[in-house]
C-alpha cells in the first residue's frame, strides 16, 4: 500500500473514552452515581450535538462547548439535578484525560517511523494536545474538526488531511474503529483501516469483527504496524 500518512480517529479507536469518563465521574460525583451509566448517557448526546452544527443550525463550536452544553441532561438521566460550575468544568476536562488502549502508543510509535502521523478527530486541538501530552501519543501534528470548522462525517474534515499534508487522497490512510467513519473517508478517496475495539462500549454491543470495505481490518495498532511493514 503506497501510503505517506496515517490519520486516526481518537475516541474509541486510540483512547478508551468510556472508562476514562466513568473514572472522572466517580471521582467528581461520588459513589451514589452510576458513573458508567453517566458516561454512556453523555456519549449518547455526542452525535446529536454535532448534528446541529453540521446541519447549519448553529455556527461551529469546539467539542468542549458541546460537551458542556449536553452535560446537564446527561446528569439528569442518572438522577443528578445540577452540579457547581467548577465541577461541570472538571467533568468536561475528563475528555482530555482519557487513557489510550494498551496497544495504541507502541503501535503508533512504530507507525511513525515510516509515516506522518496525526489524529483526525472531532475533538478540539487543545483536547488532542492534552491527550497526547498525558499519554505520549506520538503525533506529528493535529488535524481534525476544529482545524477546518466542520465535524465528521462532513467531507471537509477528510479532505483536509491530504490537502494539508500535500498528498494524494489515496496516499492517506484513515484508521478508525467505526465503520461509518471509514465509509465517509473512502468516499473522499482515502485508504482505510479498521481496528476492532470490542470493549469500547463495555462489550455490549460488540462491534463488527471486520469492515469488508476497508483495505485492512486488524485487532490492534501493533497488528496494523506489522501489516504496513513497520
UniProtKB/TrEMBL annotation:
InterPro entries, A to Z: 2-HAD (IPR006328), HAD-like_sf (IPR036412), HAD-SF_hydro_IA (IPR006439), HAD_sf (IPR023214), PGP-like_dom2 (IPR023198), S-2-haloacid_dehalogenase (IPR051540)
Name of this protein: 2-haloacid dehalogenase
Lineage: superkingdom: Bacteria
Protein source organism: Geodermatophilus obscurus
PANTHER family per UniProt: HALOACID DEHALOGENASE, TYPE II (AFU_ORTHOLOGUE AFUA_2G07750)-RELATED (PTHR43316:SF3), HYDROLASE, HALOACID DELAHOGENASE-RELATED (PTHR43316)
Keywords: Hydrolase
Pfam families in the record: Hydrolase
Molecular-function GO term, any one: hydrolase activity, acting on acid halide bonds, in C-halide compounds
Family: Belongs to the HAD-like hydrolase superfamily. S-2-haloalkanoic acid dehalogenase family.
Gene3D superfamilies for the chain: HAD superfamily/HAD-like (3.40.50.1000), Putative phosphatase, domain 2 (1.10.150.240)
Keyword Metal-binding among UniProt keywords: no
Amino acid at each position: 500500500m503506497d501510503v505517506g500518512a496515517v490519520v486516526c480517529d481518537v475516541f474509541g479507536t486510540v483512547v478508551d473514552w468510556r472508562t476514562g469518563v466513568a473514572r472522572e465521574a466517580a471521582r467528581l460525583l461520588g459513589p451514589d452515581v452510576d458513573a458508567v451509566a453517566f458516561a454512556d448517557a453523555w456519549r449518547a448526546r455526542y452525535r446529536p450535538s454535532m448534528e446541529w452544527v453540521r446541519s447549519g443550525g448553529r455556527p461551529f463550536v469546539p467539542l468542549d462547548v458541546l460537551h458542556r452544553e449536553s452535560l446537564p441532561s446527561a446528569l439528569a438521566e442518572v438522577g443528578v439535578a445540577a452540579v457547581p460550575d467548577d465541577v461541570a468544568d472538571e467533568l468536561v476536562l475528563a475528555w482530555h484525560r482519557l487513557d489510550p488502549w494498551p496497544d495504541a502508543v507502541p503501535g503508533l510509535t512504530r507507525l511513525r517511523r515510516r509515516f506522518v502521523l496525526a489524529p483526525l478527530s472531532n475533538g478540539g486541538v487543545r483536547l488532542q494536545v492534552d491527550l497526547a501530552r498525558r499519554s505520549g501519543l506520538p503525533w506529528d501534528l493535529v488535524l481534525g474538526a476544529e482545524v477546518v470548522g466542520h465535524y465528521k462525517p462532513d467531507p471537509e474534515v477528510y479532505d483536509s488531511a491530504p490537502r494539508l499534508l500535500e498528498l494524494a487522497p489515496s496516499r492517506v490512510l484513515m484508521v478508525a474503529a467505526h465503520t461509518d467513519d471509514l465509509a465517509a473517508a473512502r468516499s473522499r478517496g482515502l485508504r482505510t483501516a479498521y481496528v476492532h475495539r470490542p470493549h469500547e462500549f463495555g462489550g455490549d454491543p460488540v462491534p463488527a469483527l471486520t469492515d469488508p470495505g476497508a483495505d485492512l481490518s486488524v485487532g490492534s495498532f501493533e497488528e496494523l504496524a506489522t501489516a504496513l511493514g513497520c
